[in-house]
Automatic annotation (TrEMBL):
InterPro entries: NADH_UbQ_OxRdtase_su1/FPO (IPR001694)
Enzyme nomenclature, EC number: 7.1.1.-
Organism, scientific name: Kribbella orskensis
Membrane-topology descriptor: Multi-pass membrane protein
Protein name according to UniProt: NADH-quinone oxidoreductase subunit H
Family listed: Belongs to the complex I subunit 1 family.
TM annotation in the entry: 6-23, 76-95, 107-128, 149-171, 177-195, 224-247, 259-281, 293-315
Keywords carried by this UniProt record: Cell membrane, Membrane, NAD, Quinone, Translocase, Transmembrane, Transmembrane helix, Ubiquinone
Quaternary structure, from the entry: NDH-1 is composed of 14 different subunits. Subunits NuoA, H, J, K, L, M, N constitute the membrane sector of the complex.
Location within or outside the cell: Cell membrane; Membrane
A UniProt-annotated Pfam family: NADHdh
Amino acid sequence: MLEFVVRVLGVLVAFLVTPLLVGQAEHKVMAHMQSRLGPMYAGGFHGWAQLVADGVKFIQKESVTPAAADKRVFEWAPIVAILPYMAAMAAIPLAPGIVGADLDSGLFYLLAVMSVGVLGSLMAGWASGNKYSLLGGLRVAAQLMSYELPFVLSAASVAVAAGTLSLTGIVEAWNPWWLLWQLPGMVVFFIAGLAELQRPPFDMPVADSEVIFGPYTEYTGLRFAMFLLAEYAGIVVLAGLTTVLYLGGWSGPGPDSIGWIWTVLKIAVVSVLVIWVRVAFPRLRADQLQKLAWQGLVPVALLQLALTGIGVVIFY
């Protein structure tokens, strides 16, 4: 019982802290890359209190429910958007024995849970009673259907290579030459993951120049902040899953007792890469987004899966 409580508390603390750290990192990385001065002033040294200032701002704002909205769905949408990522964090192993829940079908569980989080955006767009929010919600649905397939196919390739759906088993089966063998799948997985999270350059559902702010147009205060936290939590989950599947998880110099340090460092590097992509690439048009998915990522993911199957038959 005590071990269960410790694991639950550990997942809860990680869920409350890591998205905030990613949010703070995004402020600072973007400030350096784009020469932004504002995020470097709050609190003095290096703008350390910028995230605190943002939190105070959201708390002070009133949470308004539009008169034409479906009130119950409108209010539940932010919760539906953020909770699946908390459930996902529970299955990501940091080191041998350091995991909220070591599931035999951990990869299947994570992929299923991550897809549920997008329902929050769909609910928000439908329930807001705003045509621009509805249009943003429909764009979420189209984007999800397009990028879910390459996302799952590339992850399935790793499961085939490792011979297990257990995330711990995948890390134990990993070896350095996978960085070459599974590289196309890793690129597809990362790009599709960005699209699943609606991160730039795949932020068509929240294209402010076209649909104001998509499904989130009518949200204010803490409800809007929950959508932002869901995005940052999604970055942590995507970075953690990329680390486990493709970068060897806790594999690194030294004993397994310090393996969690390598996992955390790899997650941090992938998270910074997600932020860098936001700054470096412009938003895709709707037709470019769909073309990339169906004519680019899906064929590469299928080819990777086929090559992995051939490799397993020949070398294992």
